[in-house]
Amino acid sequence: MTIRVVARAVARPETRVALQAALTAMLEPTRREAGCVRYELTVSTTDPDEFVMLEEWRSEADVARHLQTPHVAELLAKAPALVAAPPDIRSYRVLG
User: Fold this and answer.
1) pLDDT tens digit at each of 96 positions of the chain
2) How far apart are CA 82 and CA 69, in angstroms?
3) 23 assigned to some structural domain
4) Residue 38 — φ and ψ, nearest 5°?
5) What is the CATH number of the domain that holds 32?
């Protein structure tokens, strides 16, 4: 069963560059994780402060392991100082 995660974070204008750098630093270590099928950082075409991470995982267990990694812990420690509001993270099961 494939799991898709959509994680949206909006930077304060003065922290946009720092948030983008922190999110970009997640790409390579996450892509090397077992169970990671896709992990892409995107930015809104209308709001340069809005970032969305599009994720695809083989299972919920893989997502749970990802959330326990040091690079996720590091991002979560940095995020409160960089975002305008708490990130919106949603998980979905692929039905077909």
Assistant:
1) 799 999 999 999 999 999 999 999 999 999 999 999 999 999 999 999 999 999 999 999 999 999 999 999 999 999 999 999 999 999 999 887
2) 20
3) yes
4) -150, 140
5) 3.30.70.100
Is 31 among the domain residues?
yes
In a domain, 85, yes or no: yes
Dihedral angle, C-alpha 56, 3, 43, 65, nearest 10 °: -70
Pick from 20, 21, 4: which is nearest to 59 by CA? 4
Can you give the residue range of the structural domain that contains 11? 3-89
Identify the bridge partners of residue 9 per DSSP, sorted by sequence position: 51
